[in-house]
Amino acid sequence: MASETNKLPGARAGALSHIRVLDLSRVLAGPWCSQNLADLGADVIKIERPDSGDDTRAWGPPYAPDAEGRATSEAAYYLSANRGKRSVTVDMASPDGQALLRELAKHCDVVLENFKVGQLKRYGLDYESLKEIKPDIVYCSITGFGQDGPYAHRAGYDFLIQGMGGLMSVTGERDDLPGGGPQKVGVALTDLMTGMYATVAVLAALTHRDRSGEGQYIDMSLLDTQVAMLANVGSNYLNSGKRPARWGNAHANIVPYQTFACADGHIIVAAGNDGQYRKFVEAGGRPELAEDERFATNPLRVKHRDVLVPLLAEMVRGQTRDAWIALLEEKGVPCGPINNLDEVFANEQVQARGIEIALPHPTAGEVKLVRSPMRMSATPATSDKAPPLLGQHTDEVLAEILGKSGGEIAALREKKVV
Description:
Strand content: 15-25%
Number of helices: 17
Keywords: Transferase
CATH superfamily of the largest domain: Crotonobetainyl-coa:carnitine coa-transferase, domain 1
Radius of gyration: 26 Å
Order of helices and strands: EHEEEHEHEHEHHEHHEEHHHHHEHHEEHH
InterPro entries: CoA-transferase_III_domain (IPR050483), CoA-Trfase_fam_III (IPR003673), CoA-Trfase_III_dom3_sf (IPR044855), CoA-Trfase_III_dom_1_sf (IPR023606)
Helix content: 25-40%
Organism: Massilia norwichensis
Number of strands: 13
Protein name: CoA transferase
Distance between the termini: 29 Å
CATH architecture of the largest domain: 3-Layer(aba) Sandwich
Pfam family, one: CoA_transf_3
């Protein structure tokens, strides 16, 4: 039931090396899903608009530099979500382009798209149309609000969904403190998590197909994902009826579980139990803060946080960041620095895990990326192919999968179909 194996020359066999994906998505949520599938070995065919391609190709600066340090046309944003794929340019608005994509879909296991609700039906590229020609297709749609409901036809963007889905109501400093108010998360977390949930759903649907022969439709919504991501915060509200507040870098249910300013920077202290709290204050030379009946247990510390936290803050200010980290690590108190990105990529653990990679690239010489975090012993995830140039694999894919001759491909180019 899976498509013919399509392992590219030199590639290591991944868990999904027998899977081919027709990726009609762009920007972040959909490409994040298809990049995961590519890392796991799938042959991902990224369909892009001729001339312009994925929107994120123009989302710069920064752009990847070439060997002389000059900016190329490869936006770092695009590079972050498109490694391991093959780029094919097709004019989806033309009847010939639509026919070409339907022909490709016959040879694919998965179709991934993030167009507005109903838009692909006009092109004969919706699930029902493709199911007619590939009955076991797994078809995943990603939209802002899902395929039904009063908001279904609205455009959805990560920033909007972070606000509408409640994340910004619990992110940011407390309203009664300087700088208080709602904040978005610093990365497009809702897009990324929707891409991750979509990956899980696609893998589950493929497993079902391989057992039953039945394909299916997957309806992924950014808003659904954001509400699900509220996790314990959402559960706290549903089970208490109390609207949660913003706590900044503190925790609603645990004290101390927050940032503190040191003599020369900041640290995070995450004292998850009473024993760790006691070790923390003993390390700071304030053992009486563990004996005080107001602070003896976590529920009491939560109740009296406005009294306790200033005392802890005064204690922490007396030593440097590195001194505190060394001291608390020795005593088994969870702690860590707040690193900027140069410190992140210079970190010895990050380096030991090989998270930063450099891949050969046609115009930049090489591009620096972050490898897949999935570590698998038998079918390792690979991150060995740089994000493709626009249309880099058009001829290759049309010849290899559809058997198009050089003359047929030239005719398609002349008609501006590809």
